[in-house]
């Protein structure tokens, strides 16, 4: 082999190595992004639980003192003790769910790059999937975060955690977009196209939308429209990867107000 041939082999090997390192970097960043959502569920719920514990401790201390019944009643109402007690167990459930999801994601990380049969798939009820998505996306957020859900009685075939992750990313983007918008809303709807047997799942918001010059880039890895470092730019890239791996499609629709993402997935009996 000539010297030039050897140099070409070295260059090709180096190029492949750089490509692998680049792919590894994207994968590591993607893993961090995937883990962030259940971590946010846990930390957001723990923050609220900390406030609830403080309120209960304050009320217990007052109840053990010399305050009159009327004073305790006023404090009870001021601290919203009934509301606090009613919400402690649901918040603990969210923490437990987030921990379980973290454990599952850690076990499944190596499978995310091999979606051609290596991941256990199952029939998924779309209505149940949508409920789980909204619960996770809204966990720890302000009560003003409004998501209007219109499910459909149909099933898709796929990996539940992966599909939930895709739609949580879309709902989260929508909620971020309408934060601070008067009467901000996110619509999460599903329907069946009988002619194609495709399930159409739509996530639409009435936020500021996506600028025309950016629409062609929003599914690129590491591209983000969020200000500063508030977004890693992987959410929509992950959405596309997951939906396409389930033989579906996702695209940004033209709409006069806000952003409208439409996904399609094959319906199964």
Based on the coordinates given, report the CATH architecture of the largest domain.
Answer: 2-Layer Sandwich
Instruction: Please summarize the sheet with the most strands.
Output: 7 strands, mixed
- Mean pLDDT, as a whole number? 81
How far apart are the first and last residues' alpha carbons, in Å?
Answer: 59 Å
How many individual helices?
6
What are the salient characteristics of this protein?
7 strands; 16% strand; 269 residues; alpha+beta; 53% helix; seven-stranded mixed beta sheet; Heat Shock Protein 90
Overview of this protein structure:
The chain has helices at 3-63, 69-78, 81-108, 126-138, 160-178, 235-245; strands at residues 122-125, 147-150, 155-158, 186-193, 198-205, 249-253, 260-268. Strands 1, 2, 3, 4, 5, 6 and 7 form a seven-stranded mixed beta sheet that branches. 53% of the residues lie in helices and 16% in strands. It is an alpha+beta fold and 269 residues long. Helix 1 (3-63) runs antiparallel to helix 3, helix 4 (126-138) crosses helix 5 (160-178) and helix 5 packs antiparallel against helix 6. The protein folds into two domains: 3-106, no CATH class; 120-268, Heat Shock Protein 90 (2-Layer Sandwich), CATH 3.30.565.10.
Structure summary:
This protein has helices at residues 3-63, 69-78, 81-108, 126-138, 160-178, 235-245; strands at 122-125, 147-150, 155-158, 186-193, 198-205, 249-253, 260-268. With 269 residues, it is of the alpha+beta class. The N and C termini lie far apart (59 Å).
């Amino acid at each position: 082999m000539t010297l030039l041939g050897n140099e070409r082999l070295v260059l090709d090997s180096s190029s492949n190595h750089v490509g692998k390192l680049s792919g590894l970097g994207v994968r590591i960043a993607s893993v961090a992004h995937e883990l962030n959502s259940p971590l946010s569920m846990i930390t957001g719920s723990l923050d609220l639980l900390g406030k609830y514990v403080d309120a209960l401790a304050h009320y217990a201390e007052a109840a053990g003192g010399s305050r009159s019944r009327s004073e305790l009643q006023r404090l009870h109402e001021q601290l919203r003790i009934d509301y606090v007690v009613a919400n402690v167990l649901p918040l603990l459930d969210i923490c437990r769910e987030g921990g379980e999801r973290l454990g599952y994601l850690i076990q499944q990380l190596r499978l995310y790059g091999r979606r051609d049969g290596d991941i256990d798939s199952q029939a998924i009820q779309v209505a149940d999937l949508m409920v789980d998505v909204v619960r996770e996306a809204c966990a720890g957020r302000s009560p003003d975060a409004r998501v209007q859900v219109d499910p459909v009685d149909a099933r898709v075939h796929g990996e539940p955690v992966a599909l939930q992750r895709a739609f949580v990313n879309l709902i989260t983007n929508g909620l971020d977009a309408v934060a601070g918008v008067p009467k901000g809303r996110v619509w999460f709807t599903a329907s069946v196209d009988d002619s194609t047997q495709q399930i159409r799942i739509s996530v639409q918001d009435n936020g500021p939308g996506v600028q025309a010059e950016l629409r062609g880039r929003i599914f690129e890895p590491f591209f983000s429209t969020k200000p500063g470092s508030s977004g890693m730019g992987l959410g929509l890239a992950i959405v596309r990867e997951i939906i396409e791996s389930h033989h579906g499609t996702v695209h940004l629709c033209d709409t006069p107000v806000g952003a409208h993402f439409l996904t399609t997935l094959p319906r199964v009996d």
